[in-house]
């Protein structure tokens, strides 16, 4: 059974459709709610993959949210161990910080539905295998990250060029692939954005779910490849995975 550790930063930003997928494939899920004081594991060998979710705080607000500093160091350890890691929104920015890449205010904040495109690297990466060159995704962020030294930019967009990168077996996604109708209602209830956000979700729901499930399945594929390599005493790297495509 695949063991997945999920780090949750606020109540309103849970795993959404990712949680549904992991339950469907009977993964063992352990959720660490750092905003409630849950401790991160001392032993990274107790899980096969890590997912860091979103949140309204900024990665540099460690004084207000002390768990951010601890999580950054934890992510650094996990990434150096080459454990498959996925970060969404805040989680993506924390991965960037853990990889010593700057996280700063973006020229323009992004809130709502936006189009993003795969780069050449993204079109041949395991995480986006089988996905279209352009996708509609949900955005809600005011910061952006640089791609770490040695990393690869996988997804881009005009207003905010750095939308997703890979560093070793860690993936950082600025956008929310996990979003559900219930999450959007929770986030934007009683705001002018609510009707448009939910209406668009209802229109493209089937496409969104198919895209998200393909990303999750591809991530599981990476986990399984690493598990096989570990069982045989070998080391799995992205170059090995790409050569297998």
3D architecture notes:
The protein is α/β, with parallel strands linked by helices and 245 residues long. It has one domain (3-238): Rossmann fold (3-Layer(aba) Sandwich), CATH 3.40.50. 36% of the residues lie in helices and 25% in strands. The chain is built from seven helices and nine strands, in the order βαββαβαβαββββααα. Strands 2-1-3-4-9-8-7-5-6 form a nine-stranded mixed β-sheet, sandwiched between helices. Helix 1 links the parallel strand 1 and strand 2. Helix 1 (16-24) crosses helix 6 (194-231), helix 2 crosses helix 3 (90-98) and helix 5 (181-188) packs across helix 6. The model is unreliable at 241-245 (pLDDT under 50).
Q: What is the CATH architecture annotation? A: 3-Layer(aba) Sandwich
Which descriptor suits the 3D outline? globular
Gap from first CA to last CA: 24 Å
Specify the helix fraction band: 25-40%
The number of helices is: 7
Mean pLDDT: 94
Give the strand line-up of the largest sheet. Answer: 2-1-3-4-9-8-7-5-6
CATH class: Alpha Beta
* Major sheet summary line: 9 strands, mixed
The CATH superfamily is known as Class I glutamine amidotransferase (GATase) domain
Structural class: alpha/beta
CATH topology: Rossmann fold
Low-pLDDT regions:
241-245
Using the CA coordinates, give the radius of gyration.
17 Å
DSSP E strands, number: 9
- Beta content comes to 15-25%
Order of helices and strands: EHEEHEHEHEEEEHHH
Q: What is the count of distinct domains?
A: 1
């Amino acid at each position: 059974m695949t063991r997945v550790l999920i780090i949750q930063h606020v109540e309103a930003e849970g795993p959404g459709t990712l949680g549904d997928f992991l339950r469907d494939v009977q993964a063992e899920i352990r959720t660490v709610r750092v905003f409630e004081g849950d401790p991160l594991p001392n032993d990274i060998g107790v899980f096969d993959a890590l997912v860091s979710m979103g949140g309204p705080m900024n990665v540099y607000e460690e004084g207000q949210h002390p768990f951010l500093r601890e999580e950054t160091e934890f992510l650094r350890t996990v990434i150096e161990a080459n454990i498959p890691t996925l970060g969404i929104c805040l989680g993506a920015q924390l991965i960037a910080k853990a990889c010593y890449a700057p996280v700063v205010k973006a020229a323009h904040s992004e809130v709502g539905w936006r189009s993003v495109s795969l780069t050449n690297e993204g079109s041949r990466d395991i995480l986006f295998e089988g996905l279209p060159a352009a996708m509609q995704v949900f955005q809600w962020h005011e910061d952006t990250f640089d791609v770490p030294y040695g990393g690869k930019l996988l997804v881009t967009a005009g207003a905010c060029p750095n939308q997703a990168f890979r560093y070793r077996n860690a993936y950082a996604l600025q956008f929310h692939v996990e979003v559900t109708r219930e999450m959007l209602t929770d986030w934007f209830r009683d705001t002018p954005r609510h009707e448009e956000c939910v209406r668009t979700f209802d229109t493209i729901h089937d496409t969104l779910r198919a895209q998200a499930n393909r990303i999750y399945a591809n991530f599981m594929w990476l986990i399984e490849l690493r598990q096989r390599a570990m069982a045989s005493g070998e080391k799995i790297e992205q170059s090995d995975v790409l050569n297998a495509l």
